[in-house]
Task: structure prediction
Amino acid sequence: MEDVLDSTLDLVRRLPPKDLKKNLSHLLKIRPEISEDLLQTVDQPLEVAVCPVTQKEYLLCDYNRDEDSYRSPHSNEFDPPLPGGSKPSDRLRNLEVIANEVFEVYAKQYYGEALSSCYFWDLEDTVFACCILIKKNAQSGSRGVESGGWDSIHIVEVDESESRTDPTYKITSSILLSLTTAAEGGEQTMSLCGSIADQREKRMKKSAKKDEEHVVNIGKFVEDMENRLRNTIDQVYFGKTTEVLASVHDRSASMRSGHGGARQKNAFAADLASVLRRRGGAKE
Result:
């Protein structure tokens, strides 16, 4: 079972993130016995729902789901209604409300028209966790963009067991990126998609009497991780793509001008003459 799961995860990492939902559906039909483990391990593009109480949009994930219902961070109610559904303690619900307000501002400052949702839950007496979600859809027609999206998923575990004034924060961050551009007239398209993840841990100062400082520390940690991963994406994905396109453009320009073809012919002729001279010398 473990080998099957590892092989499936290895395959998923090599498939385009924009087709992840469809590919997962196919894989689960082939090996339904790994459904639960696979869905818990693989990050999927975030989906959007509307809170029936406040009419505000929010993001769906496993961390606000109980059975087949999802809890809204705005009203703290499940949709569809689920009596006895799992909800955070009063302390964490207060932090959840503050975090949603803070990250709503954060998402708009960094991404413009973007949607964010935050969820908190208890783990142990001195440990709790939260999930910070951000979704940005690319605007069609902007700079040749046809479609695309950016999904940030940050899972933070907060451990106060050693010190309430110096807690340990452990963050696991994942970013899913997809982008499709179209040439003028829409005859040619180019797709760029991928995912990246990282995990960090550090201690941060917090006042013993100011619980909301947890949100400040988590916000700084998330911002640091997003900047780190954004720089990596810029270097790995966009940097390499730019390098390849520049190389193709230079080669095409050389071939059109005729200089590239002439250089290749001259080099081939020189190599051929050298080989013939060596063979002639051997025969003599």
